[in-house]
Amino acid sequence: MTIEPINLLVHFANVLLLISYSVRSMLWLRWFAVASALTVVPYYLAQEKVLWPPVAWAVVFTAINLYQIARLYAARRPVVLSEDEQKLYDLGFQTLRPREFLSLVTIGQWRDADRGHQLLTEGQHVSAVRIATTGEVEVRRGHESLAVMKPGQLIGTALALTDTPSPVSASFIGKGRYIEWPLQQVRAFLDRRPELRVALQQRVSQDLARKLESALSVGGS
Fold this sequence. Notes:
Blueprint: H1 5-22, H2 26-45, H3 52-76, H4 83-90, H5 98-106, E1 109-113, E2 118-120, E3 128-134, E4 137-141, E5 144-149, E6 154-155, H6 157-162, E7 169-172, E8 176-182, H7 183-192, H8 194-220
Antiparallel strand pairs: 1-8, 2-7, 3-6, 3-8, 4-5, 4-7
Helix pairs in contact: 1-2, 2-3
């Protein structure tokens, strides 16, 4: 039995497709799928009556795979953090992968603060979670100073989770800079990223543990 040369394209395309199913790398799978789709196109075009439907579908599959390939390459690019982002990352977000951390920071808002700028207001509900990256924040109840929070500590997290009015106020002692995440945006973001929710819950637990340890040490002294 003789095989026409043009028919070899069909066999070669299917061999490439079989290889794509055997590789573990998603990137290589998609490259082999693209090669398979493009290899068989000349066969369809060489027929006495051009087979346009399979040509069109080959083009569609190729376009989809090329788009996904571009996304895979983009995801492999090294993440470059700004000065503010790097400082925040070093203050306690090392458990997150840099790309996950960057996606979280993207929905936040960076703000500068002058002396006396309030982050929490006594008696009011918390509308955002905040973290100071520079400057110290004083926590007060009425006229009594309760604590001074260093950069990197979460401000208003427990109140935000319980949706209760803040029993204290918190304001910058001097100039500073902080990032804030509006609660609605954070909730919507974490609903789409459940794996990131777990990592952030660990971060919150660690922060609460540090605050409790600090409070006990102050009480003991």
